[in-house]
Amino acid sequence: MTAELLRVTGLHAFYGESHILHGVDFKVDRGEVVILLGRNGAGRTTTLRAIMGLVGRRSGSVMINGREAVALQPHQIARLGVGYCPEERGIYASLTTQENLLLPPLVASGGMSLEEIYAMFPNLAERLGTQGTRLSGGEQQMLAVARILRTGAKLLLLDEISEGLAPVIVQSLSRMILALRDRGYTIVLVEQNFRFALPLADRFYVMEHGQIVEGFAASELGGRMAALGERLAV
Questions:
Q1: CATH number of the domain where residue 189 is located
Q2: What is the extent of the structural domain holding 46?
Q3: How many domains are contained in the chain?
Q4: 129-165 tens-digit pLDDT
């Protein structure tokens, strides 16, 4: 088994006639937390959606655990052990917390049990019978991530999970990501909140105009902070 879990090469993506990604290249090793940085409109969310096959058209290469996935459908990609948490969370309003948790099918063995999920997200354990729309924004975000963990996915694609949340909830999400990394999960995180992302990542990639323009390890961050601040306006 190689260290590399995901490799994206020459990835182009289109919505209708709009050409959004222009040859994206990056890789993610097993157990890494990788952050995609960039301004709004840089193509970060589209990159996650293109990996999952959720764009109108794509070309290039998406290798997941050694298997080419660029021609696969989203449900087939999920069964390679990939979980996607979109920015809009996708909580079903008419279902309870527990029903939302149990809805996605299992895609691989080794998913978290409900007991493990409730231990990681005690807020959810207290709101099992609560309808999705009655959960707070932070609780909805926890639920959106938690239901992926039950499916057995080990590669998590998380889009702007801290957006609009109170600082205390953001801190809780930071602890969650670090705990998942300790358990062997591999995470690709799109995040606008640089201060939230900074202590979490093993590696950063910076996107501009639908391309990766820079990539570096967390150990190199110190010497790049000034340039990143200008580039990202943080």
A1: 3.40.50.300
A2: 4-232
A3: 1
A4: 999 889 999 999 999 999 999 999 999 999 999 988 8
Position of tokens 């938690």? 146
- Can you tell me the distance from the alpha carbon of 23 to that of 211, in angstroms, rounded to the nearest whole number? 6
**Average per-residue pLDDT for the chain:** 92
Amino acid making up residue 200 = L
Angle between helix 167-182 and 137-151 (nearest 10)? 10
- Residue with tokens 């990835």, as numbered in its chain: 11
Q: With bands split at pLDDT 50, 70 and 90, how would you rate the model's confidence at 197?
A: confident
User: Which residues fall within 8 angstroms of residue 150, CB to CB, at 6 or more apart?
Assistant: 101, 102, 104, 106, 111, 112, 113, 114, 117
H-helix segments, the chain: 44-51, 74-78, 97-102, 114-120, 122-125, 137-151, 167-182, 194-197, 225-232
Coil, strand or helix at 42: coil
The whole-angstrom separation of Cα 93 and Cα 132 is 4
Return d(Cα 161, Cα 141) in angstroms, integer: 7
**Alpha carbon distance 97, 89 (integer Å):** 13
Claim: this prediction has a pTM higher than 0.85: yes
The CA distance from 194 to 191, in Å, is 7
